[in-house]
């Protein structure tokens, strides 16, 4: 559906400068996602960490002519052929437009909220119902103040069911989402601690969420969630209810749940009918999610549409429920390919998101892009039209090579105007052809409906050699970055410390992510690390903390800025810079204010001024010092002494050399505990990895070290496990073997019961000594099998506690994860 820009201008009110006609069918809030400039309307959103107005010029240069702004900046004047709608609040305008769009349609809409399971319930409902309805749903977990309007905007005339999720983090947000979604049927999944920061109690948050259902006709919930039940009863909501739970008063009564092997079988009763179904999951959350889905299904079919219940259909579809891929994973593959596997569903909206993600990866690395795409199974659209739309999207995304898999896409291949294209009737014939070997040094996006089993392709393309991985959640990293940024004044700059392979997480990916999110400076330990970042396209200024004299040429070659901590280093560097013909080369002067590691001391200041004052070879870019105990209140007096001394040295230097430069002293814990000393810049390190000196609950886990069980064996009481016969068994035991040893960074001190790993939701202790490449754990009675995943540290297993158990700190555990452990990056 399209709207003329005039129509939108009228709708939003406010002032407008309408200088071009135009029809709008796409809304854009992230400038990096631009594909079709002609019919795009850009909303310049402002947040604590970014401002969309900054990207208007760039978008204009890329052909966008329609903008919604709140601040008409003088630069916009020169864009004579662009239209600007000027409103007070651009986010509100976006929401207003989406709400208007929603009002055109009378389709039933399922609105889902709650603390956990929203996305899975939504995706499973779509898996269960897509044969019967032409559904439109939120892509991935687009459930925020921005995600919801963008989701609802996708509704078109063909849809006859909408499924949208709503998430909130503070009061007042849900009403805005309610106006946009206007659900007919509400699903309240459950209520838990997630996003609790801005609510005084669970009850308060629950009440707030229920406002999503103010005008709904039906509300589905589980009676056994006491808080939810209490809040609904007190809420005064007018909607009718559909309740499930163990109580016999429930509309859908659960009679029993049996978990055997990898399958749960659920028996329940609806009216006089008994329903028995199985799902291929055994965790409690999946069982709960399936019951929310079943309730919704029953309500839609039997109560709203008045049809008989089809028990066989329920059982046959429930059995096939698939795990929901919550994220796009990037893995290194053979022949230097980057493989992005998004093979859990294929519809045009999620294709759009996956292409956008692939495009950014390819642009960063200047690689070509190949799309492996299956038939798109989407009811309700004529194939000709559907593939014409897909072809358009794929072309505009700059795909260099298309591999179509399936009979339908094979027929439609001529619609794609792409340099290289070929097609195969099935996944097997593609794999059998060996053509996948032709993929070299490119980004490969795998996007297929689940019955095409693209995981077979990804296994072929990925280098599966070592089953231990360090997962790095880049979205969480950005979240933590923004948390620290929110503690600072707007103009304070941030140096992100990406030394030591970015605390083990991989400097290149982390640096790229930070560069995207407007970090101001990077710091590495040695020149080689900085050179690598430059070769990978990092353009931010980079400081080198340990510039050895034999690496000076590398500094000049790659524009790396040295830390200068002594007279001998300073003199040597100036000499080298003169030889290299440099002038005003930026340096960073390190002060020793009490750490007694490196740096000039207070009495050195006069001599330092003497050297720096009358020369133009180097220029002081910043002066800094490092706190020895910023994380601990016990050292606060000492910390204040350090701060005073630093300030004195900085003033002396500035007065002496007569120009100003940046000052910085705070590390991560300093930012949290002494924000009043942020000066011009701060240096953020461990905090990016969710370690907080004040135990802030706002941090998100970034790194997860995981491995896979190689083998499980039964060993009798009295036998021993491992080297030196240290692991003596007191009972008959089941021992699982993990491909993870001290050479991977699993410290030998975790041996003999000290370390515990998380497996099947329980903690299993290490048995015996840890070997170089392997460790054994006791999994007696835990139903562990070959191929199961074990978490060493991460979301389920706090790294600080783990570090404590062997008397070290998280820094060491992170940086010890050896380079042979594969890093897997993802965004949520
Ligand atoms: C590593 C380092 C930091 C970062 O410290 P965190 O405690 O990880 O935040 C800051 N400054 C200097 C000089 C460092 O070497």
Automatic annotation (TrEMBL):
Q: Which cofactor does it need?
A: pyridoxal 5'-phosphate
Note whether Membrane occurs among the keywords: no
The Alanine racemase C-terminal domain sits at 702-826
Q: Which SMART domains does the entry link to?
A: Ala_racemase_C (SM01005)
One GO MF term attached to the UniProt entry? pyridoxal phosphate binding
Q: Which InterPro entries match?
A: Ala_racemase, Ala_racemase/Decarboxylase_C, Ala_racemase_C, Ala_racemase_N, Mur-like_cat_sf, Mur_ligase_C_dom_sf, Mur_ligase_cen, MurCDEF_CellWall_CoF430Synth
Q: Which Gene3D superfamilies match?
A: Alanine racemase, Lyase, Ornithine Decarboxylase, Chain A, domain 1, Mur ligase, C-terminal domain, Mur-like, catalytic domain, MurE/MurF, N-terminal domain
Query: What residues sit in the active site?
Result: 499, 723
Catalyzed reaction equations: L-alanine = D-alanine
Q: Pfam families, from UniProt?
A: Ala_racemase_C, Ala_racemase_N, Mur_ligase_M
Function per UniProt: Catalyzes the interconversion of L-alanine and D-alanine. May also act on other amino acids.
Q: What is this protein called?
A: Alanine racemase
Biological source species: Paludibacter jiangxiensis
Organismal lineage: Bacteria, Pseudomonadati, Bacteroidota, Bacteroidia, Bacteroidales
